[in-house]
Structures are given as C-alpha cells and as structure tokens.
Amino acid sequence: MSGGETPRLDRHERLLRRLGFSPSTAEVTHAFLDAALPERGAVVVDAGCGHVSALRPFRARASEIVGVDIHAPGAPLPWLDRFVCADLCTDAGALPPGSLDVAFSSFAFEHLRDPDAALRTLARWLRPGGWLVLSTVNRSHPLVAAYCALPVRVAEPLQRLVKAAPTDAHPLVATHNTPRRLRAALRDAGFGEVEIRTTDHLARAWRRRVPTFVIGLAGDIAAHRFPARRSTIVVRARRGMEDGGAATEPAPTWAGSVAGPTGTGARAGGSIPESRAPLEEART
Fold it and tell me: For the chain, which terminus, N or C, has the lower number of CB atoms within 10 Å?
C-alpha cells in the first residue's frame, strides 16, 4: 500500500460512521468469534480461507487453525497450522467428526453449489455445542440481487473490478442468501441458537476505486433503513447436542450489546460497538 492510500481509507471509514453504518461487518464478526472461542486450546476451521482472516487476532486462543478450500492458497497463510484441500459440499470426511470447537467462514457461502450439504459438513465437524460464525452476501439487497441475475460473461468482469485480487473472484450462486432462507437452512442442518445480523458493507468492500465506492455507498444508503435488505449477513449458530435436545432461539435484541454464547468453553460477552440499528430479526 502506498503512503497516500491510508488517509483516503480513513476518510472513507469516518464518513461511513457519520452516516450510521456501524457496527461494521468486521466488528460484528470479531464479537461473534470472541464470544464463541474458548480462552485457550480451540480447534478451529477457516472454511473457504482467503488471503486475510478475522481469525488472526485470536491466534493465541487456538491450538490449531485448519484452512479448508477447494484450491490451495497461492502463498502460505501464516495464521494456519495446516491446510486441507476439500470441497465443503462433497468432502464431509475431510476432517474427523466432532473435532472442532468453532467453524468460521467469511464470504464463501455465496459461492457454494450445494450450501445445504456444506452446512451439514460443518455441523458434522463441530463438536456438540460448537459454534459456527459465518458472513455472506444478502440477496435481498437490490444490488446483490441484480448482480446475481447477470449473465456470467457480464458478472465475472464486474466481480474482478470490485475484488481485492483476481483470485478472489468466483461465481456467485447465493441460493440460500437471504436471512430467512439461511436461518431455515441452518436449522435443517442441525444448528440452533441462530442469531443473524445484517450490515451495510458495500461501500467498505468496494472502496478501492472511487466509482465503485460511490455505487456501494448509494447501495448502503438505499438499504440502511431496511435491516433485512442490508448487503451482508453475519450469523452465529450452535450445533445441536448429541442427545437431540433442541437448542433455543434467542429473543430479538438490539445492536447495543450482544449476549455471549453459554456452555462449556465459550466466553461470556462478545460486545459489539453501540448502534441504534436493529438486528435482522425481521422475517423477510
């Protein structure tokens, strides 16, 4: 990054916060991971791992972080202990069942051809009571929906334009990418205690170029008043217990604070910066 780029990014972030676009996707994800991870000795998977990861600040709390993706990374990822080349949709045997405390996936779910199978795989890998933290795009946002409707020959160049690197550009499938569909899919895969938040993320994700930042900002402004239509979904959900006991659903809360997961190995807390924006508990 050149010396002149950082102040511009800082100005972008200050503008977004003045407009009320907080907490950010990164802040919600960090809080969910902080609450889900044990203080030490966690075994974690980064499913669909990329060249950056929200797990990096939690490296000291994990005894092992396993990266899983269909392609090996182009360069070693220093926060990973090992990498497994596997497809979440078809390779359920890539990791032992019940071997993980936390499964994390950042903006990979929307690329999966069989998201139901992928969620079943992650549930299989998690120990009973383990946590899934996942971020993905929201097809209820008009710009995301418009992109999904584009022909591949048009969509692929656009994706390369807004992505940080050409290797990050993958076909966008997004079959379950609305809050309601994702919640239902998680329940069907054996998850409970599903908590969903939606965030305004387009301007932050597209700020590398002025035209895309402006388009993203317009999209965030248009959807901000409608939480279920904001561009990004961040979810945490808990794998059911082996005895088949149903996990309870949390009551709708507000973004000023988040109650942390309870149970063996989970930390209380997981504070998210204060905001007046409601959680996505709107049923759309």
Answer: N
Locus of tokens 């809080």: 31
Q: Which residue range(s) make up the domain with 175? A: 9-239
Burial 163-199 (b: 16+ CB within 10 A, else e): eeeeeebbebebbbbbbeebbebbbebbbbbbbbbbb
Distance from C-alpha of 65 to C-alpha of 84, rounded to nearest angstrom: 11
Instruction: For residue 260, count other CB atoms closer than 10 A to its CB.
Output: 17
Number of domains in the chain: 1
Structure confidence by residue, pLDDT tens digits, 136-194: 999 999 998 988 887 766 666 666 665 555 555 456 678 899 999 999 999 999 999 99
Measured at the alpha carbon of residue 93, what is the angle toward residues 89 and 96, in degrees to the nearest 5?
A: 125
Q: What are phi and psi of 198, to 5 degrees?
A: -115, 145
Give the length of the chain. 284
Decide if 135 is inside a domain. yes
Which burial class, exposed, middle or buried, applies to 225 when counting CB atoms under 10 A from its CB (0-12, 13-18, 19+)?
exposed
